[in-house]
Amino acid sequence: MRARVALALLSVPLGLAIASCVSRSSTRSDSLAEWKSPSFPADWRLRDTQRATHAPAAMVVSSESLATEVGLEILRRGGNAVDASVAVGFALTVTYPEAGNIGGGGYMVIRLANGHAEALDYRETAPMASTQDMFVDASGAATDGSRIGHRAAGVPAAVAGLVAAVEKHGSLPLATVLAPAIRLAENGFVVDSALHYSLRESRALLLRFGGARVFLPNGELVPRGARLTQPALARTLRRIAAEGARGFYAGPVADAIVSEMQRGGGLITAADLAAYRPIWRPALRGSYRGFALLAMPPSSSGGTTTIETLNILETYPRLPPFGSAAYTHLLASAQQRAFLDRNARLGDADFMDAPVRELTSKEHARAWRRTIDGSRATRTASLGSPLAKREGSETTPYLVVDAAGNAVATTTTLNSLYGSVFVAEAGFFLNNTMDDFTIQPGTPNMFGLVQGEQNAIVPGKRPLSAMSPTIVLDPDGKVFLLAGSRGGPRIISGVIQLIVNTIDHAMSTTDAMRAPRVHHQALPDELVAEVGGLTSAARDSLTAMGHTLADGGVGLPALIRRVPNGWEGIVDARRGGRAKGL
Ligand code: DON
For the chain, give me the number of helices (H) and strands (E)? Predict the structure, then answer.
């Protein structure tokens, strides 16, 4: 079947194949309930055995089962989707320390049942003592200090954000929301193979930066099946429950962070901690084929780049069939252009002029569309790099909808797995998010992103993120889909493809998630595809069109979708986690 589609497309010029697709009227979410079977490569490794979970009233999706159970516990106690999301966030710091950690930061997009939408930016900031060239040595070379060690840490933001979310939109007391996380830290939980494997993979880092005290007592990894208790973390969580954000940003927890910084030559001071504030922002709005998008504005690039890519795709009345070379080419070309803008023009809008309105306009998409040749890849260099002058995982998404119709999409990160420093006295890891800044224009960061000076380090500034918690409303204004992902810049591609798979390709929730994905971030100038995700015919066509193909994973998303009798939720079988509802 797949081969037939590819052959059919090869027999006509690709540009013609795209142009000849007929347009269709705007899709309503109800009509999308009739799912089409997509044609994935015959040997595609993700089978549809790991199906979406259905529930009539509410749904929680997170990367770790116990944290998902915590979200449900809070909903059962009468909490709303914001309470449940915050409870999941605090629980993840206990049960999913590689990513869901209070030493990091994140973003939340909230859509209340009354239609009000808001975004919460609780991204880390650069400490006051940081400087633009702090990760460049005397010879002018970039150091690894933005990734490894104490100076890699931005001012931790997660606690301020989670507390602000409950204070503004929650319906339960903070202490109630924190209770399950405290219980898990104090009484412990059984280490499963996923956690054991994750700790084993990061063993060297844990030994180097102090996490060994908790996770490798006596030098041995906590074994599978053992009960892991985290008394220092429990004390920290109890302080937050009793005092709110002050319990973290002042007093013993703040002291522990500052003395760890002093011990390891880090920059975060008591004044940095005291000054940290999360920021409420209007949700970034866009539209795609009659559906409305509520997404994250800067300091994340996630919303802007997602909307820009979808706008470019929308200039095609109908996309070619899933998996075809023609489709993959258009998708990658749209991503390539949106990432070119992202890398050169976006940063923390409180410190520079981020042209979000221009980049998310339909007109801008039409201008980019004119540069796309339906049968030929465009080299990024020939698109003219607008990168500014002077040039010369870990992350976790979680999603909650409640029975009243409130919806919350959150993504939080330490940047790379376990960040880079463990604050032993207080029981948590600190992020290495400073690497998301432009360390040096022209030098790729840990995700290969080549970014411009607009994202340079400035004290108090937030590094540009790709995190993309997104809520999609159907043409009737009802919440239709919630999405988020991990994977650095590939977060954006993961989220885009969940949306396009659902809206354009009419895939089921299960297929939308298991479908093979691709990614293009302008530089490096290559089309990343999952191994086995493209037929060899499609690969040959794409290569003939001038694409440089590279193998790689593309995000690890989470998805909730409205279906006629409730909700479906699904985690990515590529990694795991749990979707469960009420
Ligand atoms: O904010 C960002 O864009 C990155 N710090 C996200 C890092 C990430 O997704 C790591 N996971 N693989």
Answer: 20, 21
Query: pTM score, two decimals?
Result: 0.93
Q: How far apart are CA 514 and CA 40, in angstroms?
A: 9
Residue the block writes with tokens 């993959």: 328
Ligand 1 pocket at CB < 6 A: 393-395, 413, 415, 433, 436, 465-467, 486-488, 491
* Interval 120-126 mean pLDDT: 98
CB atoms within 10 A of CB 516: 22
Pocket test residue of 98, 146, 147, 395 for ligand 1, highest count of atoms within 8 A of CB: 395
DSSP E strands in 420-463: the ranges are 421-423, 428-430
pLDDT tens-digit map of 175-214: 999 999 999 999 999 999 999 999 999 998 888 888 888 9
**295: β partners:** 284
Cα 470 to middle of ligand 1, angstroms: 16
In angstroms, rounded to a whole number, what is the distance separating the alpha carbons of residues 294 and 168?
A: 19
- 546 CA from centroid of ligand 1 (Å): 29
Residue 28's pLDDT is what?
59
DSSP 45-114: S--TTSPPEEESS-EEEESSHHHHHHHHHHHHTT--HHHHHHHHHHHHHHH-TTTS-TTSEEEEEEE-TT
Closest CA to 427 of 194, 186, 264: 186
Q: Write out the two tokens for 58.
A: 């509410």
More confidently predicted of 38 and 283: 283
Q: Whose CA is nearest to atom 2 of ligand 1?
A: 465
Beta bridge partners of 472: 293, 481
Tokens 């290495």 -> residue: 432
What whole-number distance in Å separates Cα of residue 96 and Cα of residue 429?
11
For tokens 């959150």, the residue is 410
Question: Angle at which helices 174-187 and 231-243 pack, to 10 degrees?
Answer: 170
Chain-centre distance for alpha carbon 454: 21
Tell me if 502 sits within 8 A of 495, measured CB to CB: no
Pairing type for strands 527-529 and 549-551 reads parallel
Rounded to whole angstroms, how far apart are CA atoms 85 and 79?
Answer: 10
pLDDT at 393: 54
Confidence of residue 491 (pLDDT cuts 50, 70, 90): very high
Nearest CA to ligand 1 atom 6: 488
Which of these is catalytic: 53, 95, 304, 395? 395
Specify which residues 107 forms β-bridges with.
Answer: 121, 411
Closest CA to 107 of 60, 160, 71: 160
306 an active-site residue?
no
Q: ∠ CA(75), CA(79), CA(83), 5° rounding? A: 100
Q: At 342, is the secondary structure helix, strand, or coil?
A: helix
Give the model's confidence band at 2: pLDDT under 50 very low, under 70 low, under 90 confident, else very high.
very low
Residue type present at position 2:
R
Give pLDDT, residue 207.
87
397 contacts 469 by C-beta, under 8 angstroms:
yes
Could you tell me the distance, in angstroms and rounded to a whole number, from the CA of residue 394 to the centre of ligand 1? Answer: 6
Q: Is residue 233 within 8 Å of residue 426, measured between CB atoms?
A: yes
